[in-house]
Amino acid sequence: MRPLRVALFGSPAFALDTLEGLRRRHELVLVVSQPDKPAGRGLGVKPAPVAERARELGVELWQPTRLKSDEAFTCRLAEAALDVAITAAYGRILPRAVLDAPRHGVLNVHASLLPKYRGAAPVQWALIHGEEETGVSIMQTEAGLDTGPVRLQRRIAIEPYETAPQLMNRLATLGAEAVLDALDLLATGVLPSTPQDDDAATLAPLLSTEDGHIRWSESAADVFNRYRGVAAWPGTSFAVGGLRVKVTELPVAPSLGEAAGVAAGVEVGGAAGGAAAVADPGTVLAVGGEGVMVAAGSGAVRLVRVKPPGGKAGSPR
After folding, report:
1. Per-residue CA distances from 72 to 114, 169, 234, 279 (Å)
2. In a 3-state reduction of DSSP, which class is residue 310?
3. pLDDT (tens digit, 9 = 90+) per residue, 13-69?
4. Does residue 313 lie in a domain region?
5. Is 287 helix (H, G, I), strand (E, B) or coil?
6. Domain-terminating residue out of 200, 234, 260
7. Does one domain contain both 184 and 269?
Protein backbone atom coordinates (compact mmCIF):
# COMPACT_ATOMS: atom_id res chain seq x y z
CA MET A 1 0.00 0.00 0.00
CA ARG A 2 1.50 3.33 -1.06
CA PRO A 3 1.73 6.12 1.52
CA LEU A 4 -1.01 8.70 1.23
CA ARG A 5 -0.30 12.37 0.64
CA VAL A 6 -1.61 13.99 3.81
CA ALA A 7 -1.96 17.41 5.41
CA LEU A 8 -2.46 17.87 9.15
CA PHE A 9 -4.51 20.72 10.61
CA GLY A 10 -3.75 20.89 14.34
CA SER A 11 -2.57 23.24 17.06
CA PRO A 12 -2.32 21.97 20.68
CA ALA A 13 -0.36 19.08 22.14
CA PHE A 14 -3.35 16.77 21.57
CA ALA A 15 -2.38 16.63 17.86
CA LEU A 16 1.31 15.81 18.35
CA ASP A 17 0.88 12.02 18.43
CA THR A 18 -1.15 12.24 15.24
CA LEU A 19 1.57 14.34 13.59
CA GLU A 20 4.25 11.80 14.49
CA GLY A 21 2.16 8.89 13.27
CA LEU A 22 1.39 10.55 9.95
CA ARG A 23 4.99 11.42 9.19
CA ARG A 24 6.13 7.86 9.96
CA ARG A 25 3.48 6.05 7.90
CA HIS A 26 2.50 8.53 5.18
CA GLU A 27 3.78 11.47 3.18
CA LEU A 28 3.11 14.48 5.39
CA VAL A 29 3.04 17.19 2.74
CA LEU A 30 2.22 20.14 4.97
CA VAL A 31 1.05 21.16 8.43
CA VAL A 32 -1.49 23.90 9.14
CA SER A 33 -1.60 25.42 12.63
CA GLN A 34 -2.84 28.49 14.46
CA PRO A 35 -0.68 31.64 14.21
CA ASP A 36 1.90 32.20 16.95
CA LYS A 37 0.33 34.03 19.89
CA PRO A 38 1.48 36.01 22.96
CA ALA A 39 1.83 33.77 26.00
CA GLY A 40 3.04 33.97 29.57
CA ARG A 41 3.49 36.99 31.83
CA GLY A 42 5.95 38.59 29.45
CA LEU A 43 3.52 38.05 26.57
CA GLY A 44 6.32 36.77 24.38
CA VAL A 45 5.12 35.25 21.12
CA LYS A 46 4.91 31.47 21.33
CA PRO A 47 3.99 28.93 18.64
CA ALA A 48 1.38 26.25 19.12
CA PRO A 49 2.97 22.86 19.94
CA VAL A 50 2.14 21.47 16.49
CA ALA A 51 3.69 24.48 14.72
CA GLU A 52 6.81 24.21 16.85
CA ARG A 53 7.21 20.50 16.07
CA ALA A 54 6.64 21.06 12.33
CA ARG A 55 9.46 23.60 12.31
CA GLU A 56 11.76 21.18 14.14
CA LEU A 57 11.01 18.49 11.54
CA GLY A 58 11.34 20.83 8.57
CA VAL A 59 7.78 20.09 7.41
CA GLU A 60 6.15 22.82 5.33
CA LEU A 61 4.13 24.93 7.78
CA TRP A 62 1.25 27.31 7.15
CA GLN A 63 -0.33 29.50 9.82
CA PRO A 64 -3.08 31.44 8.05
CA THR A 65 -4.93 34.07 10.05
CA ARG A 66 -8.07 33.63 7.96
CA LEU A 67 -8.52 30.43 6.00
CA LYS A 68 -11.29 31.68 3.76
CA SER A 69 -9.54 34.83 2.53
CA ASP A 70 -5.96 33.56 2.29
CA GLU A 71 -5.64 33.00 -1.47
CA ALA A 72 -2.00 31.90 -1.28
CA PHE A 73 -2.89 29.14 1.17
CA THR A 74 -5.94 28.04 -0.83
CA CYS A 75 -3.82 27.80 -3.98
CA ARG A 76 -1.10 25.83 -2.19
CA LEU A 77 -3.65 23.40 -0.84
CA ALA A 78 -5.06 22.84 -4.33
CA GLU A 79 -1.55 22.31 -5.75
CA ALA A 80 -0.58 19.80 -3.06
CA ALA A 81 -2.55 16.96 -4.68
CA LEU A 82 -3.55 15.65 -1.26
CA ASP A 83 -5.23 12.30 -0.82
CA VAL A 84 -6.72 13.39 2.50
CA ALA A 85 -6.40 15.99 5.22
CA ILE A 86 -6.59 15.31 8.96
CA THR A 87 -7.78 17.73 11.62
CA ALA A 88 -6.94 17.21 15.29
CA ALA A 89 -7.97 20.09 17.58
CA TYR A 90 -7.11 22.69 14.95
CA GLY A 91 -9.47 25.21 16.51
CA ARG A 92 -11.18 26.65 13.43
CA ILE A 93 -14.04 25.73 11.14
CA LEU A 94 -12.82 24.76 7.67
CA PRO A 95 -14.36 26.53 4.66
CA ARG A 96 -15.75 24.58 1.71
CA ALA A 97 -12.65 25.23 -0.44
CA VAL A 98 -10.49 23.46 2.17
CA LEU A 99 -12.92 20.57 2.66
CA ASP A 100 -13.04 19.91 -1.08
CA ALA A 101 -9.31 20.20 -1.82
CA PRO A 102 -8.14 16.67 -0.81
CA ARG A 103 -9.29 13.74 -2.94
CA HIS A 104 -10.94 12.01 0.05
CA GLY A 105 -11.88 15.20 1.89
CA VAL A 106 -11.04 15.86 5.55
CA LEU A 107 -11.10 13.42 8.47
CA ASN A 108 -11.37 14.78 12.00
CA VAL A 109 -9.94 13.17 15.13
CA HIS A 110 -12.65 13.99 17.68
CA ALA A 111 -12.21 13.09 21.37
CA SER A 112 -15.65 11.65 22.08
CA LEU A 113 -17.98 8.90 20.98
CA LEU A 114 -20.04 10.91 18.52
CA PRO A 115 -22.82 11.96 18.42
CA LYS A 116 -22.20 12.58 22.14
CA TYR A 117 -20.21 15.69 23.00
CA ARG A 118 -20.06 17.57 19.74
CA GLY A 119 -18.01 20.72 20.15
CA ALA A 120 -14.74 22.16 21.42
CA ALA A 121 -14.50 20.58 24.90
CA PRO A 122 -15.67 16.95 24.71
CA VAL A 123 -13.14 15.58 27.21
CA GLN A 124 -13.95 18.19 29.83
CA TRP A 125 -17.72 17.77 29.61
CA ALA A 126 -17.52 13.98 29.64
CA LEU A 127 -15.74 14.23 33.00
CA ILE A 128 -18.04 16.93 34.39
CA HIS A 129 -21.02 14.70 33.58
CA GLY A 130 -19.42 11.69 35.25
CA GLU A 131 -19.13 9.51 32.16
CA GLU A 132 -17.45 6.15 32.71
CA GLU A 133 -16.56 5.57 29.06
CA THR A 134 -15.36 7.73 26.19
CA GLY A 135 -13.17 7.35 23.12
CA VAL A 136 -12.27 8.90 19.80
CA SER A 137 -14.28 9.21 16.61
CA ILE A 138 -12.73 9.57 13.18
CA MET A 139 -15.35 11.69 11.46
CA GLN A 140 -15.76 12.88 7.89
CA THR A 141 -15.76 16.65 8.26
CA GLU A 142 -18.74 18.56 6.89
CA ALA A 143 -19.84 22.16 7.17
CA GLY A 144 -21.78 21.49 10.41
CA LEU A 145 -20.36 21.27 13.93
CA ASP A 146 -19.10 17.66 14.25
CA THR A 147 -22.12 16.39 12.32
CA GLY A 148 -20.40 14.36 9.59
CA PRO A 149 -20.52 10.57 9.23
CA VAL A 150 -18.42 8.55 11.66
CA ARG A 151 -15.80 6.53 9.81
CA LEU A 152 -14.24 4.71 12.78
CA GLN A 153 -14.46 4.71 16.60
CA ARG A 154 -12.30 3.45 19.45
CA ARG A 155 -13.53 3.20 23.07
CA ILE A 156 -11.78 3.38 26.44
CA ALA A 157 -12.92 3.39 30.07
CA ILE A 158 -12.47 6.57 32.09
CA GLU A 159 -10.50 6.02 35.29
CA PRO A 160 -12.36 7.08 38.48
CA TYR A 161 -9.90 9.81 39.51
CA GLU A 162 -8.68 10.84 36.05
CA THR A 163 -8.49 14.57 35.30
CA ALA A 164 -8.94 16.28 31.95
CA PRO A 165 -5.19 16.58 31.16
CA GLN A 166 -4.63 12.91 32.00
CA LEU A 167 -7.56 11.72 29.92
CA MET A 168 -6.61 14.06 27.08
CA ASN A 169 -3.15 12.47 26.93
CA ARG A 170 -4.61 8.98 26.64
CA LEU A 171 -7.08 10.06 23.98
CA ALA A 172 -4.31 11.78 22.00
CA THR A 173 -2.50 8.44 21.75
CA LEU A 174 -5.71 6.58 20.96
CA GLY A 175 -6.65 9.16 18.33
CA ALA A 176 -3.32 8.82 16.55
CA GLU A 177 -3.70 5.03 16.45
CA ALA A 178 -7.30 5.30 15.26
CA VAL A 179 -6.59 7.71 12.41
CA LEU A 180 -3.77 5.51 11.12
CA ASP A 181 -6.15 2.53 11.15
CA ALA A 182 -8.72 4.65 9.32
CA LEU A 183 -6.21 5.65 6.65
CA ASP A 184 -5.28 2.00 6.08
CA LEU A 185 -8.95 1.23 5.46
CA LEU A 186 -9.40 4.36 3.35
CA ALA A 187 -6.49 3.40 1.11
CA THR A 188 -8.05 0.00 0.42
CA GLY A 189 -11.55 1.41 -0.11
CA VAL A 190 -13.20 -0.29 2.87
CA LEU A 191 -13.46 2.52 5.44
CA PRO A 192 -17.06 2.51 6.75
CA SER A 193 -19.23 5.61 6.85
CA THR A 194 -22.05 5.71 9.40
CA PRO A 195 -24.40 8.72 9.63
CA GLN A 196 -24.79 10.18 13.10
CA ASP A 197 -28.07 10.04 14.98
CA ASP A 198 -28.78 13.75 15.46
CA ASP A 199 -31.50 12.96 18.03
CA ALA A 200 -28.84 11.42 20.31
CA ALA A 201 -26.43 14.33 19.99
CA THR A 202 -25.15 16.29 22.99
CA LEU A 203 -23.03 19.43 22.96
CA ALA A 204 -19.64 20.22 24.52
CA PRO A 205 -19.10 23.97 24.18
CA LEU A 206 -15.96 25.81 25.19
CA LEU A 207 -15.63 26.17 28.95
CA SER A 208 -16.14 29.53 30.61
CA THR A 209 -14.67 30.74 33.90
CA GLU A 210 -18.07 30.16 35.52
CA ASP A 211 -17.89 26.46 34.67
CA GLY A 212 -15.13 26.14 37.27
CA HIS A 213 -17.23 27.57 40.12
CA ILE A 214 -18.21 24.98 42.73
CA ARG A 215 -21.95 24.35 43.02
CA TRP A 216 -22.22 23.33 46.68
CA SER A 217 -25.83 22.24 46.13
CA GLU A 218 -24.60 19.45 43.84
CA SER A 219 -23.55 16.08 45.23
CA ALA A 220 -19.96 15.56 46.38
CA ALA A 221 -19.45 13.27 43.39
CA ASP A 222 -20.65 16.00 41.00
CA VAL A 223 -18.40 18.61 42.63
CA PHE A 224 -15.47 16.24 42.26
CA ASN A 225 -16.34 15.42 38.64
CA ARG A 226 -16.44 19.14 37.81
CA TYR A 227 -13.04 19.54 39.49
CA ARG A 228 -11.68 16.78 37.22
CA GLY A 229 -13.18 18.31 34.10
CA VAL A 230 -11.92 21.87 34.64
CA ALA A 231 -8.49 20.86 35.96
CA ALA A 232 -6.55 22.33 33.03
CA TRP A 233 -8.72 25.47 32.69
CA PRO A 234 -10.42 27.38 34.24
CA GLY A 235 -9.72 25.42 37.44
CA THR A 236 -11.99 24.98 40.46
CA SER A 237 -12.91 27.94 42.66
CA PHE A 238 -15.43 29.23 45.21
CA ALA A 239 -16.36 32.64 46.58
CA VAL A 240 -15.60 33.86 50.11
CA GLY A 241 -16.35 37.43 51.16
CA GLY A 242 -16.56 38.63 47.59
CA LEU A 243 -13.19 37.08 46.70
CA ARG A 244 -12.67 34.00 44.54
CA VAL A 245 -10.47 31.29 46.02
CA LYS A 246 -8.94 28.67 43.74
CA VAL A 247 -8.90 25.01 44.77
CA THR A 248 -5.75 23.16 43.71
CA GLU A 249 -6.43 19.85 45.46
CA LEU A 250 -9.87 18.42 46.14
CA PRO A 251 -10.32 14.71 46.81
CA VAL A 252 -13.91 13.59 47.27
CA ALA A 253 -15.38 12.46 50.60
CA PRO A 254 -18.15 9.94 49.87
CA SER A 255 -20.61 10.82 52.59
CA LEU A 256 -21.57 13.37 55.20
CA GLY A 257 -21.29 10.54 57.68
CA GLU A 258 -17.58 10.44 57.02
CA ALA A 259 -17.47 14.21 57.47
CA ALA A 260 -19.14 13.87 60.86
CA GLY A 261 -16.58 11.29 61.86
CA VAL A 262 -13.70 13.53 60.86
CA ALA A 263 -15.32 16.44 62.69
CA ALA A 264 -15.16 14.62 66.02
CA GLY A 265 -12.45 16.13 68.19
CA VAL A 266 -11.50 18.99 65.84
CA GLU A 267 -12.67 22.57 65.39
CA VAL A 268 -15.99 22.67 63.57
CA GLY A 269 -17.39 25.64 61.67
CA GLY A 270 -21.12 26.26 61.85
CA ALA A 271 -22.29 23.11 63.64
CA ALA A 272 -21.25 20.51 66.17
CA GLY A 273 -19.81 17.28 64.83
CA GLY A 274 -22.98 15.37 65.63
CA ALA A 275 -25.02 17.75 63.49
CA ALA A 276 -22.77 17.44 60.46
CA ALA A 277 -25.03 15.02 58.66
CA VAL A 278 -27.77 17.66 58.34
CA ALA A 279 -25.56 20.66 57.48
CA ASP A 280 -26.60 22.95 54.63
CA PRO A 281 -24.59 22.75 51.39
CA GLY A 282 -21.48 24.95 51.64
CA THR A 283 -21.27 24.62 55.44
CA VAL A 284 -17.80 24.01 56.88
CA LEU A 285 -18.02 20.73 58.78
CA ALA A 286 -14.51 20.30 60.07
CA VAL A 287 -11.06 21.85 60.03
CA GLY A 288 -8.17 19.49 60.62
CA GLY A 289 -4.83 18.16 59.52
CA GLU A 290 -6.21 16.90 56.21
CA GLY A 291 -7.88 20.16 55.22
CA VAL A 292 -11.35 21.67 55.45
CA MET A 293 -14.42 19.47 55.07
CA VAL A 294 -17.39 21.17 53.40
CA ALA A 295 -20.94 19.85 53.03
CA ALA A 296 -22.28 19.35 49.52
CA GLY A 297 -25.86 18.69 48.40
CA SER A 298 -25.17 15.08 49.38
CA GLY A 299 -21.86 13.91 50.74
CA ALA A 300 -18.96 16.24 51.41
CA VAL A 301 -15.73 17.41 49.84
CA ARG A 302 -12.39 18.10 51.46
CA LEU A 303 -10.46 21.21 50.44
CA VAL A 304 -6.83 20.15 50.80
CA ARG A 305 -5.01 22.98 49.02
CA VAL A 306 -6.37 26.39 48.01
CA LYS A 307 -4.94 29.56 46.49
CA PRO A 308 -6.37 32.92 47.58
CA PRO A 309 -6.27 35.87 45.17
CA GLY A 310 -2.69 37.05 44.79
CA GLY A 311 -1.41 34.40 47.18
CA LYS A 312 0.35 31.05 47.00
CA ALA A 313 -1.32 27.66 47.08
CA GLY A 314 -1.41 26.04 50.51
CA SER A 315 -3.55 24.37 53.12
CA PRO A 316 -6.81 26.23 53.84
CA ARG A 317 -6.39 25.71 57.58
Report:
1. 34, 34, 37, 64
2. coil
3. 999 999 999 999 999 999 999 999 887 666 678 999 999 999 999 999 999 999 999
4. no
5. strand
6. 200
7. no
If 0-12 CB within 10 Å is exposed, 13-18 middle and 19+ buried, where does residue 286 land? buried
Residue finishing a domain among 172, 200, 228: 200
Contact 220, 237 (CB under 8 A): no
Dihedral angle over CA of 83, 61, 16, 112, nearest 10 = -60
Neighbouring CB atoms inside 10 A of 29's CB total: 22
Global pTM reads 0.90
What is the domain extent for residue 30? 5-200
Give dist(CA 130, CA 112) in Å, integer.
14
pLDDT tens digit sequence for 120-167: 999 999 999 999 999 999 999 998 889 999 999 999 999 999 999 999
Report the Cα 307 to chain-centroid distance in Å.
Answer: 23
